[in-house]
Amino acid sequence: MPASQETITLSVYPDLPSADARRSLASWLRAEDRLRGQVNAAPAADVTPPSDEMSGGATDVLLVAVGSGGAVMVLVQAIAGWLTHRREDVTVKLTLPGGSSAELDVRRARDMDQVTALIEAAVRALAEHEPSAETNER
């Protein structure tokens, strides 16, 4: 495992409380060649659902191990693809190892480019707040 490997925590909060959205996202991510073997479910520890009208919270989170070489971009594109295929409203919360987090509240996403841009902006904002986060873009 590369030394630069980081784990991003994904929490999924659908408009209707259900583990189906989280299982669906996990399956979608595991179908990506670059993420295969890097996506695991784990009990949610200190994860609180968004403070809006959603009555259900996640009992598990997805842990995605990413490193350099574009794995984060593969993750971003995979999440965007999954969100554009959802029929209900959903919030995905991304949390970096240092505790920085961003919530993506998507209302029936249909434009993959728009969703991808939203997720990329959230990941960039999180990376800026992580002292150990380094990007090796070429």
Description:
It is a single chain. 31% of the residues lie in helices and 24% in strands. It contains 3 helices and 5 strands. Strands 2-3-1-4-5 form a 5-stranded antiparallel sheet, covered by helices on one side. Helix 1 packs across helix 2. The longest helix has 18 residues.
Give the key terms.
single chain, 138 residues, alpha+beta, 5-stranded antiparallel β-sheet, 31% helix, globular, disordered C terminus
In a nutshell, what does this entry contain?
Helix content is 31%, strand content 24%. It has 138 residues and is α+β, with helices and mostly antiparallel strands.
Q: Using DSSP, what is the number of strands? A: 5
Radius of gyration: 14 Å
Strand count, sense and closure of the main sheet?
5 strands, antiparallel
Helix content: 25-40%
Enumerate how many helices there are, as a single number: 3
Termini separation (Å)?
22 Å
Strand content: 15-25%
